Amino acid sequence: MYNKHYYFIGIGGIGMSGLALIALEKGAMVSGSDTVHSCITSGLQKKGAKIFIGHKKEQIPLDAAVVYSSAISSDNSELMFAKSHKLSILHRSDLLALIMQPQEALLVTGTHGKTTSSSLLAHILLEKEMQPSFAIGGFIRGLNANAGYGKGRYFIAEADESDGSFLKYTPFGAIITNIDRDHLDYWQTMNGLVRGFQKFIDSIISWEHFFWHGDNPWLSEIVTKGYSYGFDKKNALFIESHRQDKWRNIFTICFENKRYKEIEIPIIGRHNILNASAVFGLCLKLGMMEEKIRSAFMSFKGINRRLECKGEAKGVIFYDDYAHHPTEVLTTLRAIKNAVGSARIVLAFQPHRYSRTLACLNEFGAAFEAADIVVITDIYTAGEAPIKEIDEGLLLREINKEIKRPAYYFSRSKLSCQLVKILQTGDCLITMGAGDISSLSYDIMENL
């Protein structure tokens, strides 16, 4: 650490709070602001952080380095104060780059699957007492933590491609889960996004510890080193067979002339077989024994907001998931359908950002095929200004063109009471999106 005091603007965010926690554990003073109190800010307070509610320039110590994220607008009063007083200012990614030193970084990047893959990797190294540091974009169940400082050799982190900040790091090893059509508000074109990944790949130190999704067409065009993984047998590590048994995956992989049969992990979906396979391969190359990896897989409890069971009421079971891109929605719903069988799936989907909804509009319709009833609500803006070409009505029409069952729109304020009317005993309700929809389950359970 290079500063004795860090002030975080938006300290309650999932990425910012993780860095604040590591700074505390490394002996720095930490303070920061957010708009509301939360369980995250309360947890940081218990660790010794000083938390302010509301953004006010008077709260910033003049000896502190001020940390902000891409979510903080340039006209934020605290950020403007820090600039006018020439304080040390760090983007979240700059601080992560500093904090990772002198450990060797094992980074996970890709349009989908970063949090699951990095959480699983951190869980395994922690389970096997390798004392890694880690900074993850979600709370690992069982640990109830999204970050931690360890004195081992490795630092595990998500490398965020959405704002280009993954190019600030020097990864010792890495997993690239995929490249998909997303974050074009920043990269402008798919060519720009792919070039960004190429630069990230060029920065990797150890090709022996680099795994990339070989079935992904964009990655297969640009990567020539490391180990490809996927379902196609042309990959260096390929998934020979797989099946889903209710809420667990069982699969066999082939890697370096050896078959690893019937690997089990208690998370579901074809996408998570890919995530787990990459982590399994990387752990082998880190020198871990096969049986230790297998046993750590079995004790993995998942991550909050990744098919998180929220509870049950009146015979309805509630799950919550962070999926917001059509690819994520499609694969997650298919996995749920395989798990629940004949139970009716009621989906409450909150679109995320006007720009993403517009860019992926033609892909959304087919993404909901596995749901029996689809309900969409207001677009979660994430601070974006409205785009006149897109609204909930246009998205609803696109969905109704593609799926045989009707889809509905209800405003966020009326969503809970309308879903109560729809739900029946035996249903499975899925709340899905990257906004505030995760709180909806509790409202409906209370109403039921």
| Structural class determined from secondary elements | alpha/beta
Strand percentage, roughly?
Answer: 15-25%
> How helical, in percent, are the residues?
25-40%
Radius of gyration from CA coordinates = 22 Å
Walk across the major sheet and give the strand order.
8-7-9-6-10-11-12-13-14-15
Task: Indicate the CATH topology of the largest domain.
Answer: UDP-N-acetylmuramoyl-L-alanine:D-glutamate ligase
Mean pLDDT across the residues is 92
Distance between the ends: 50 Å
Task: Give the second-level CATH assignment, the architecture of the largest domain.
Answer: 3-Layer(aba) Sandwich
Family: Belongs to the MurCDEF family.
Keywords: ATP-binding, Cell cycle, Cell division, Cell shape, Cell wall biogenesis/degradation, Cytoplasm, Ligase, Membrane, Nucleotide-binding, Peptidoglycan synthesis, Transmembrane, Transmembrane helix
Subcellular location: Cytoplasm
Domain Mur ligase N-terminal catalytic: 5-101
Description:
This protein has 448 residues and is α/β, with parallel strands linked by helices. The protein folds into 3 domains: 5-90, NAD(P)-binding Rossmann-like Domain (Rossmann fold, 3-Layer(aba) Sandwich), CATH 3.40.50.720; 102-298, Mur-like, catalytic domain (UDP-N-acetylmuramoyl-L-alanine:D-glutamate ligase, 3-Layer(aba) Sandwich); 308-447, Protein-Tyrosine Phosphatase, Chain A, CATH 3.90.190. The chain contains 16 helices and 21 strands. Strands 8-7-9-6-10-11-12-13-14-15 form a 10-stranded mixed sheet, sandwiched between helices. Strands 16-17-21-18-19-20 form a 6-stranded mixed sheet, sandwiched between helices. Strand 11 (210-213), helix 8 and strand 12 form a beta-alpha-beta unit. The longest helix is centred in the middle third of the chain and has 16 residues, at 270-285. The model has no long low-confidence stretch (mean pLDDT 92). Residues 5-101 form the Mur ligase N-terminal catalytic domain. One of its GO terms (molecular function) is UDP-N-acetylmuramate-L-alanine ligase activity. Pathway: Cell wall biogenesis; peptidoglycan biosynthesis. ATP binds at residues 110-116. Residues 305-435 form the Mur ligase C-terminal domain.
